[in-house]
Amino acid sequence: MTRVVALEIAVQDAAGARVAFDNGADRVELCQALSATGGLTPSSGVVDAVLETAGAGRHVAVLVRPRPGGFVYAAEEIAVVAADIRDIVRRGAGGIVVGALREAGGIDREAIRRWKDAAGTAELVFHRAIDTLNDPLAIVDELVELGADRVLTSGGATRSIDGVDTLGALAHGAAGRMQIMAGGGVRVEDIDELVAAGVDAVHLSAKRRSDDVTPSGPGGGDAGYDITDPEIVAAATRAIRGA
User: Which CATH number is 60's domain given?
Assistant: First the structure.
């Protein structure tokens, strides 16, 4: 039987989601401030708009991350994430994307358990916090035990293609109990090799800068902003379907 590998595109708005789906993406991960912070929790209005564009919640996973920086969270932050998860799932999202670590190293099991409970039947995706650990392979069984449905990882490398051997080992270790999704600096030309490594999905941002040159004014930041590029999404779709 032919193995089906999903294509996920990171988007920041409904326009990006529309571009992703129109050009063949299976799923989007929604976040905000991707370039500036690595991604933060989007507003409820953006969540609703993207869910409407997707037409079905199973096509949308939402990043829930309360601030930039590392992934060791205080009790108050863990509570905020749980509240955001409940709201996002209530709005109809099919997945939530989270990650929490202990200061001493390893997964913050209590935070993940609490967030899994808040997510209910929605998928729980553990994000690239895994790539900050010395031995990501060592926590595969732990993530499965905690109820993670999918993990987004570059195999511990800056770019997924450089972590392809670890990605293959993660896929082997997960053995179908949890999806392994390659993500981190993915280019279209990397997709064949990533799929060959055995991953279940490939994740990329497929972004470019907008053509907007309207002055942003003092305090408004740089002119322009990131948008989802239809040509990159379409090329990624062709690559993943042909892999």
Answer: 3.20.20.380
